[in-house]
Specification:
Blueprint lengths: L3 H44 L3 H28 L2
Helix pairs in contact: 1-2
Length: about 80
């Protein structure tokens, strides 16, 4: 015979494990995000730019150029 309380306790424990794992993932993502912001803030001071200016340079100008260059290089390697 299945004990309903044990079944409920097992489900509650599984939910707690899932919540703990989700909180761990969220903490890791928040820590990584905050680390990246600190890097951008540091280099914005070193380069004499504002955080927003450096953010535009990195994510609107430099990153797309690298992405397009890498994509072109991959196509070049495939057609070699």
């Amino acid at each position: 015979m299945i004990n309903i309380m044990n079944l409920f306790h097992n489900v509650a424990n599984q939910r707690q494990v899932n919540n703990d794992f989700l909180n761990l993932k969220l903490n890791l993502m928040n820590d990584a995000f905050n680390w990246c912001i600190r890097i951008l803030e540091y280099y914005s001071v070193e380069l004499g730019m504002t955080y927003k200016e450096l953010n535009v340079w990195v994510f609107r100008i430099i990153e797309p150029i690298i992405f397009i260059g890498m994509t072109g290089y991959i196509f070049w390697l495939r057609n070699k």
